[in-house]
């Protein structure tokens, strides 16, 4: 198969990263400090915003003491956590126990290094030095984000194992299984974007969305990534590793003071990072929406792209808060079923469909032929699934009819001297119903249904009721 030469030249132009790596060392430090400060301020605001929004949904007031409208509440909570006593449990593996919060927090900061805040070709002036609005970029920037995000999960797993306690261990194992289940579907969603953009560079992916955002071209990939990013950062309704209902607090049960604060910080920074990745891959990155860009030519130049990127980021953070305030926590078996039986098959089938469309376009097929081929393949798959469900339904119906005709096996729960549950196909004997309260009162008073004919109740010491009648 020969690729389209014009398309290949376009991809090579998009992967031009020569504008990166030319900044002096002090400017690199300034941009790194800006990324760190941007993340910290966004986290502090997100915590207060989440508490305010959830309080509004539940008709409460929310934080309103520290600062105007309670905006400094998260900062006060951070200071309080740092001043609390730092405990180390006796049975913990101290080296890993102390290292785990660091492993969870640092990769969350590192992933933000390749997120573009503005166009690579539009340089801004910082202290008289022209530079791009991005710390750096790589030809495999998205693989770098995936690798760093995977390392962050090890902090949670090691925290659960090193605590030497049962509930943290269960939380760490849940986090490990959840990471494996949801990163496969996330990687397939990323691959669809790579096929359409022709690059793994974040700046090139945003440049490729000049005409249409990928949320329009790849809606299934966007929906899959939204679900997987919620599961990846352990947020409600997928917050199983720290489920307080059955694990007390999960992997961070044995942590206190600054170590606990670092786990909380890592969760919110990961939430900001996955939201920024979603903005970059599917929502046009720093680009302003179409109506504004058509009217205002300078909307995507200068410092304005930073504003559009921040607004999109806050919109996705509100989506996280909205999910927490509306959906209940799912069961763990439902979490695994969604990851392995729904998201992974759908993402793989969708990836094959996207690859087919791209291959047909590279072979210069027109749009009508692509729709015809893809539509025929989809109809064939739907027809095969319908036939399979039809035969499966007939088989299940025949099994149900055979089960109805079969005599229930006799079962004595006390045959072994102690009660045991029935096996499949066995039924418990009917339990005698207790007489209604009115009937018991009539029996006790000598009414209809009593064994003795007297009108007074029998006492435990009476043998024939004569003493009770005064005889």
Q: Low-confidence stretches at least 5 residues in length (pLDDT < 50)?
A: 1-13, 452-457, 459-471
Spell the H/E element sequence: HHHHEEHHHHHHHHHHHH
Distance between the termini: 112 Å
Largest sheet: 2 strands, antiparallel
Overall tally of domains: 1
Share of helical residues: 55-70%
Mean pLDDT across residues = 81
What structural class is derived from the secondary structure elements?
mainly alpha
Net shape: globular
Give me the Rg, rounded. Answer: 32 Å
Number of helices: 16
**How many E strands?**
2
- With strands numbered from the N-terminus, the spatial order across the biggest sheet is 1-2
| Strand portion | under 5%
Core attributes:
single chain; 471 residues; mainly alpha; 2 strands; 61% helix; disordered N terminus; disordered C terminus; cell membrane; quinone
Question: Can you describe what's shown?
Answer:
The protein has helices spanning 5-14, 25-57, 73-83, 94-110, 141-162, 166-197, 202-207, 214-217, 219-232, 244-247, 257-282, 290-295, 304-326, 332-362, 367-405, 437-444; strands at residues 124-126, 129-131. The chain is globular. It has 16 helices and 2 strands. The longest helix is centred in the last third of the chain and has 39 residues, at 367-405. With 471 residues, the protein is an all-alpha fold. The protein has one domain (22-289, 309-385). 61% of the residues lie in helices and 1% in strands. Strands 1-2 form a two-stranded antiparallel ribbon.
